[in-house]
Every structure is written in C-alpha cells, then in structure tokens.
Design a protein that fits this description.
alpha/beta, 3-stranded parallel sheet, Rossmann fold, 8 helices, 4-stranded antiparallel sheet, single chain
Amino acid sequence: MATQGKKFQAAAERVDRTREYQIPDAVTLVKGASFAKFDETVDVAVRLGVDPRHADQVVRGTVVLPHGTGKPVRVLVITQGERVREAEAAGADFVGIEYIQKLKDGWLECDVIVATPDVMGQLGQLGRVLGPRGLMPNPKAGTVTMDVGRAVREIKAGKIEFRVDKTGNVHAPVGKVSFSPAQLADNVTAFMDTIVRAKPSAAKGTYIRSATISSTMGPGVRLDTAVYR
C-alpha cells in the first residue's frame, strides 16, 4: 500500500477535513499547503446530483476565467479563405485547411482546435483520433464557428471547457499556485457560478453535492457550497 510523503502529511495538517471553507479562505489554504518545486495547477472538482446516463442531465459548457489558467494554450484553426487572416490576427498558433492532412498523418501539437462549419465534413473523419483527446471541435463549446477571431481570443484569454464525467463529477483547472489569492478566488467563483447556470432542468434534489479545490500535489480543501444549493 502506498504511503503519503512527509511533505504531503505536513501540508494536510494545515487543512481541517471536517470543515467547508469559503472560497477566499480555501484558496489561501491551497496556496499555503503547496510544497512542490514547480508551479502547481489549482484544480476544482465538483460532485453533482445528476445522472449522466440520461442525455437531459449531461452538464457541459465553457467559462472564460477572469485571470486565465496560467498555461499557454496552442490553438489550431482549421479554415480557409478570408478566415485565415482573421485567425492569424487573433493570435492563433496554427492556421489552415492543410492541417487536416497533418492531423491524419499523426500531428497533434495543439491544445485546442477551432474550425469553421464548412470544413467539419472533412474533419469529421478524424473523430476517433480527436474525440478521445478532447480536441474535436464542437458547436456547444464554441469551437465550431464562423467567428474564429473571437473564438481564438477567448481561448487565449482563459476560456475552458467542462463536462460531467460518468460518475457525476466535473473537474477543471482554475489557475496556478503562483496566482494571487484574489485571482484564484475570482476564477473559482466564475467557474462555480457557471456550473450553477448549467444545471439541467431534469436534475432533481441537491445539484451541487460537494466541491473541493487542490493543487497538483497538495491536499484537497472542501468548499462551502451552501450558497449554491
């Protein structure tokens, strides 16, 4: 059986596991409990009262974090014509219809793919490759659009996509340990508010059952979710 290291145990002693913390206090604890030598990612995990086996209870959406994720995002825009210049001007890292063939050849050096509707017929052939990696453009995520400039700017500014998993949980990165407490609190609040707005009408009972934030290596800190219930 794996045992927890001394550094983790020392960090965990800072957190009262029986208590639910307000967001500002929780992010301060997460920062204080961080002990890794690298700039850890701060994640939020939310347990929802939904049954994802039913299509009308699937929770998914996007949110633009006020202070971004702290991680550079490589954006590929697959389009043609005048949209190419629009995507390039917005800051896309890779642009062009020729990337469809590159993807077929195994190239995957990007984090997000944006596409215009007119190329989705060709891109659809790559569903088995892009789908499992979370790279397949989707209208609901705003990554299939004619307004490629806006899509690129939002992604570069900190737009993330979330989707409930088969166990009813949603996970998302909301910044880095190096962020200030205020920046992390703003990002967590924006994410939680978006989750609440994404509540399916078919969901019954308690919607937000629990929420926890943690750094990559650190202990979890439970959030006070009473305001969201």
